[in-house]
Write a structure and sequence with these properties.
single chain, four-stranded antiparallel sheet, 39% helix, AAA+_ATPase, branched-chain amino acid transmembrane transporter activity
Amino acid sequence: MLEIRDLEAGYGGVMALAGVTLSVAAGEFVSVVGPNGAGKTTLFKTVSGTVAARAGSIRFEGQDLLAVPAHQRPHLGIAHVPEGRQVFPSLSVEENLQMGAFTEAGRRDWAANIEYIYRLFPILLERRRQLAGTLSGGQQQMVAIARGLASSPKLLLLDEPSMGLAPTVADQIFDAVVEIRRARNLTVVLVEQRAVEALESCDRGYVLETGRVVLSGGQNELLSDDRIRKAYLGM
């Protein structure tokens, strides 16, 4: 579904991605882990089009994604849930979800999607008329994920969904992501610093350091790798 080859991207004179190559098959759950500054967020921004690629290629379902303007990429089936949640604070919960349903598929599937979202996150049903900016951090993260789901995506890009959340709330978010993948048969790419949870949830993973892929493999392969265990699992 997603094929990235020799991707380079950055900001000003800083190179954030230096020849990144990775692939994601339809229906896969792929995690990308690594330290701060590794280029994980830049990777997602380059896929969604908010950061321009300097070199390399990105293909989505065989189509040259770099030839598609950023505002058109959601209509192909790509939903990017950014780090830091970034809800529309002055809009209600349900209005935030309606903003996510601007794609043709999202408008078509609105009734089924909103039913699923409220079943997945019952608190959002209770708070549907509340301003999103007044919600707790965990509830805002639920809104951000649900807003992505409202577009009826084929590919869900989740950037640091546990950021700034208490461990118990972060666990709830991870459980929801696993449930979404199972129930919706979505292709999910997760960027996350909580390497244990990210790798335990995925089919395959990539380790990014200083803009380069330094390790990749299946879940068990990465979890048993001594370099991963030492650097990310504290073992």
